[in-house]
Amino acid sequence: MTTHPQPSAGQCPAHEQTPPTTGPNPIYGDAFSADPHATYRRLRAQGPIVPVEISPGVYGYLAVTYRAAVYLLRNTPSRFAKDPRHWEALRLGQVPADSPALMMMQPRDNALWKDGPEHTRLRNAINTAVAQVDTHALAAAVTGIADQLIDTFAATGQADMVAQYSDPLPMLTVINMFGCSQELGMRIVGAVTRLFDGADVEQANAELEAACLELTHLKRRAPGRDVASYLIAAGLTDAEMVQTILLVIGAAAPPTSNLVGNGLRRVLTDPSFAGSVHAGVRPVTDALEEVLWDNPPVPNYSPLYAIGQQSYEGVDLWPGYPILVSFAAANGDPTLVVAPGARAGNKGHLAFSAGVHGCPAPDLGRLIAETALERVLDRLPGLDLAVPENELHNRPGTFLAGLTALPVRFQPDTRLAPHGR
Ligand code: HEM
Q: What's the gap in Å between 380 CA and the centre of ligand 1?
């Protein structure tokens, strides 16, 4: 293994590990979002794990081959820690306060950012809770929520399926899974929306935590058949409940929104699905699995930190720098034998990550997305894109892959008033 002197935290590892002419490898911004796979191809040519600029001024590595991704995830936490207290630039206060990387990678008191026995204990509570979700009841709840959303625009013959459908549906579903009252649910949704918009963050955060604590107290007094009650029964304290509810909302809703939006786009635009899904020839599940392979809702995440000096296939990995796993690049690794077109029914992709921090609820995510898509296809006859496909754009950003908008048109439902039932 080549040894390097420990760099200072603000110094970019690319300066040492890649030829200076290569320059930094940004994985953010308009050029990256317009065609992320072009960046992944270029990075893969440099090695299995490459130095990157995660967001402006924030440096680390990105694992871009399937083998490297699986190696990192399998060796967590023995060689690679999840706990961001290993992040040297953060410790030294060098991460810009308004950095999107800070929002997504700073330590929080929940399972996502813990290692070892503490992670196992909190994770077991989540596993136990999601295992008790009644999937028939969940599908019925998603159908009801889908119908309410569709009713608001079905009479108009047009909609933006991101703003009016795929964005709100998973959040409303998760609130429902927690057994929230309408009023408490709306307070949570309102606070989360303000947090995502970056508006009034401190106040929104305080309101969100207060609402989650109120929900916990309610469910301690009157448990029901919902995820909040199952988590309480698994032994979490009030403080752990608040943080775990926030984790599940944040981990479940945005990725599922992206899967619904990108799945719908696939159904409407991919010639192998368009028409066949409507005609019942190819199931929606195939379209969703294809999207999970080549446009995963969480393309780059799972920041890890080398415990001591590590090396992988000749690449030195210094401690103190985040190593992100590119689930999107790993899925698109050309050395994989699973060819595009032969992926239906193959769940070997990394869209839900893997290892000890792998998603505890992939089947719930799939069920919500599948039900949401089927309801749209049932309710909106003649559904088609309202703009050419090249006018659809990805949201900018490193960690989440969603569309800015998905304008569609369809035959108006004349039984409904223009503003819904
Ligand atoms: C299409 C939908 C979904 C996708 C693509 C997805 C993807 C992921 C990924 C990639 C991770 C790993 C994150 C990391 O290690 O940094 C993760 C973790 C997690 N997911 Fe999901 N997820 C989805 C739906 C859900 C749902 C529906 C729930 C809960 C009801 C959920 C709960 C969680 C939790 C709690 C974690 C953290 C696990 C841990 O650190 O031990 N996810 N998910």
A: 30
